[in-house]
Every structure is written in C-alpha cells, then in structure tokens.
Amino acid sequence: MRRTFRAMLVLVVVLFFGAAEFCSGRNTSFSCIEREREALLKFKLCFHDPSYMLSSWKGSNCCEWKGIGCDKNSGYVILLQLKGSIFDQLLRYSIDDQQPHQLHLIDDVEEVVSSLLKLRYLEHLDLSQNNFNGNLIPPSFGLMKQLRYLNLSSMNFKRRIPGELRNLTRLRVLDLSDEHYGRLKVDDVQWISHLFSLQQLEMSGVNLSHASSNLFQLESIDLAGNQLSGSIPDSIGQLSKLESIYLSGNQFGIRFPEWLLLPKTISVIDLSNVNMSGPLPENIGHMIPVLQALHLTNNLMNGSIPKSLCNSKSLTHLDLSNNMFSGSIPNCWRNDQSFTFIDLSSNNLSDNNLIGRIPPCFGKFPIMVNATQLINAMDLAYWYWTHLMMVVKGRYLEYTGKTLGLECSIDLSSNNLIESIPEELIFLKDLHNLNLSWNHLLGTIPEKIGQMENLESLDFSQNGLSGMIPKSMSNLTKLSHLNLSYNNLLGPIPTGYQLQTLEDPTIYIGNPQLCGAPLLKKCSNDVLPPITSTFKDNNEGALKRMWFYIIVMSGFAIGFWGVVGTLIFVKSWRYAYFQWVDDVKHWILMVITLKVARFKKMFNGNLDD
C-alpha cells in the first residue's frame, strides 16, 4: 500500500512539472533525425559558400541550424529556406540586402537532389537566387511529393523545365521565374494542369508557347516577360479564385480582354507592354469591385478614361502612361479614394492626348494628404508588381519591393492640359513627386505650394505659367529636384532654405524676366513693373477679352438692326431716309461741280497770263 502511494506521488509530481513546463511556453528541445542531419551535411558539401550562409550548420541538432525548420512533434525537417540575394546594379533598391550572398554549386546537381530526397517530409523548399552554374533542372525534383512550396527562381538554370514536376500534386506555390528572359523554356505546359492544389504560379522570364487552362485553384498568374504571342486564352476568365495576373512584356497584340472582368476577386492587373490596342471597357470599375492596381503602360490604347473607375474604392495604383488616350481627366474621384500612385503620363497620364483642366478632386486623395493612413492600414512587405518605372527628379527610376509602396506620385506630363494648376493640390502634403511638365498650363504657381512639405521632386517645365515664383517654395525643405524652365515667370528667384542648394541655372532657363541667383542676370533695385493682366493671369485676361468682344458685337448688332429694322418696317421713315440720301447725293454732286468749275477757271486764267 505504501509502495503504491509512493508511485502515485511520483507520477503526480512528474505530471505537475511537465504541465508547468508546457504552460510556461518554453520550447522543448528535440533533436532532428540523424539520417536527415547526415543528408543536410552532404547537401552542404555540394556548395562553395563564400558568404557563410551555412556557417551555423554544425552540431548535433540540425533543427537549430539557420534555414532549417523541423516538425515540433516528430523532429523531421519540413522546411529548407536558403534564399540567396542578387544585387542587380540596374535596380535602385534591392529586395533584400545591399550585399549579395549566394551558394555556388561545385558538385553534380543530381547529388543535391539526392540529398534532398532523404528529407522525406520536406514541405517547403526555397533555393532561389543561388548559382547552379547553368545546369538543367533535374527531373528528380518531381519525386519530392510532399512539397507544398517550391521556389527555384533566378538560380542560373538553363534550357528545359522538366515535365516530371507534374507529380508534385500537393504543390500550392511554384516559382520558376528567371531574370534572364528566354534562358529557361517549356516545350509543353500541359503538366501544369496536374498540379490540382496550385494557387500561385510564377514563370516570368520563361519562354512559353501556351498556357494550360485547367488550373481552377490558381489565385495568381505571373507570366511576365515571356515570349508569348497570339491571344490570351478566354478560359482564364473561368478562374474564379484569381486575384492577380501579370502578363507584361509579351506580344499579344489584342484588345482589352472582356473576360478579364468576370473574376470578381481580381485585384491586380498588369498588361503593360503587350501591344494592346482599343479602348478600356466603360464598365471596368463596376465589374471589378476589388481592383487595387491597374497597370497598362506602353500600349496602343485609345479612347477616354472610363468614369466607372471612379467607383473603384479600392483602386490605389493607376498607370495608363504611354498610350493614345484622349479626352479629359474624369473629375469624379471621391474624397475616400486611396490613390498612392497616379500616372496619367504614364496614376502616370503623360504621353497621351488628354485635354482639359486638372480636376480639383486631385487635391482630395486622403492617402496623399496623410500617407500615415496608408502605412497603418496596409502591409508594405511587398507591392503589386516587383518593379515600376517612374520619372522622378528628371530621370527614369525603377522602384522595387518595399520602396514602391512608399512613393506617392502624380505624373501628368506630356499631355494637352490647360488652364491653371488647381489650388487644391497644395493639400497633398504627403505627395513626394509631382510632374506636370510639357502641357499648356497657364496662370500662376499656387502661392501656398510651400505647404506640400514632403515634396522631393517638382517639375512644371514647358508650360505657360506666369507671375512670380512664390516665396513659400523655399519652405520645401525636402526638395532635391526642381524644374521651372520654359515658362513666362518673372521677378526675383526666392532665396533661403532649400532653394539655396539648387544651384543649377537650367532650372530656370527659358524665363527671360527672371533674375537673381543662380542666374547671371541681377535684379535691379527698381520697383518691378506691374504685372499685366496677361502675365498676372492669362485665364482672367482671356475671359475679359471674350466679354469685350461679346459687348462690342452685341452693340453693333443692336445698332445695326435698330436702324435697318426701322427702315424695313416703318414706311414713312423709309421714304424720308431715301429722300435724305438723295438730297445728300445732290448736294455732294453740286459741291463737286462748283469745285471743278472753279478749278478750270483758275487753270484757264493762268494759261492766258
């Protein structure tokens, strides 16, 4: 009895401390499977590791090694995350670190896969951006049937993607994209239709001939930068779960596909640089209620910008640049619109044929008024496309990754915009870049432009702006690029603060009435000449001239018809008028006759003398 009591007491104590340890949240230590540890060490020997990515791979517990994840119950390796980093000098920012780190294959690629096959429960494999020295993708990857995530992008693989990948039926994410277009190719993509669980497929840069339509679970399609031609399969419109589609950099030569309006879940459309023509569907804003990003730059699209886009409450990125759009910019976007990027040059409207005035509603986009609203509301770990070209500070810059989401920009350059710059624009206090160059804007620069405190790049060049440069512009302490060239500005250039650092005289070239540093023309001490109505406000002057012409023409019409109409309708006045005309005529003839007779008499008298 006593022995039984002691056994029960020991059991209670063991259970108590076990429960206490479990409830305390401390991680219980467990070791990985020995044969999997040996497989990982064999995997390590296949690579040269100049950046010491695998330096932590030592010791008996491989579950504690960097890049390794184990199942907490069994100890089996289920995750291998060894993504490298390629720093492309063409990019302004790298997605990851500024310094590259890679594994370099020094053994047979089949040995690598052979080692990985011993990780029988591996679900997540990411070897992207490491250097596999131009080898083929081994077909044996298709034997890793437990995989749910596979990323082999940018690994310097070449030639054919093996169809054996069809066996990875549990795969949810497959990334085979490559930054060198055409280095990888697919002869037949029917194998993709066997990946029944696939939700995300990324094959940008891969040479594809056609795409499969039996991928009903797909949420994202990325086929950007391939060598696709012909038409886009209509069956893509049947992908009811599709959220994003990236098809830029191909040669489809199509009109905007109407079937793309069918999936109500789609939020990102990138059909830039695909040789697309024709107008945008008028009902696009009604048919895609959750659309967040529409990227159609570098095409041949025409017609007007659909007003239905005003109904897209979630739309934040709009890029229609380098097309043939015409008409005016819709003045219907509401105060709750969450735009962070507008490119109508290019939520960019440049290089189109847009006309009319800049809508005052552009000054009411809340995200540009207070960008912190965006940062608090959205995850900026990634953005809608991997990179985007923008004209900023006089140069084409490419924004990638996190930096893209932080850029609030409006580019309306190279259009036919007229009238004045709306005063409402000054309320966009978190706007970083504003480009209104190469238009026909008149009037003056808004006096309170200095309130746009986060402005870094400002381009008003090649317009008809007049008047003096507002002194408040010197309050733009973050301004690093300014271009006011080729306008009708006059008077002294403001001094102080940030403008003192902008010493390039070409900023102000083409404004002959400007003076002061950095121009060589000095300002005189004389009082500046009064600003004429033409320079003060061309719009006001044009309006006054218009009213002058209306009054003059109206007065002429009233006077003319007051006289002629009376003669037509009053008979006695008409007789009297014609009698008066006859009397005047006879009087003129008589005067002329007398003058001629007197002249002859004088002339004959001179001859007699």
Automatic annotation (TrEMBL):
Residue stretches making up the Leucine-rich repeat-containing N-terminal plant-type domain: 35-71
DNA damage listed as a keyword: no
Residues that span the membrane, as ranges: 546-570
InterPro entries: Leu-rich_rpt, LRR_dom_sf, LRR_N_plant-typ, RLP23-like
Gene3D superfamilies with a match to the protein in the record: Ribonuclease Inhibitor
Domain of life: Eukaryota
Major localisation: membrane
GO cellular component: plasma membrane
Membrane topology according to the record: Single-pass type I membrane protein
Pfam families: LRR_1 (PF00560), LRR_8 (PF13855), LRRNT_2 (PF08263)
Localization terms from the record: Cell membrane; Membrane
Keyword terms: Cell membrane, Glycoprotein, Leucine-rich repeat, Membrane, Receptor, Repeat, Signal, Transmembrane, Transmembrane helix
PANTHER family noted in UniProt: LRR RECEPTOR-LIKE KINASE, RECEPTOR LIKE PROTEIN 30-LIKE
Similarity-based family: Belongs to the RLP family.
Protein name: Leucine-rich repeat-containing N-terminal plant-type domain-containing protein
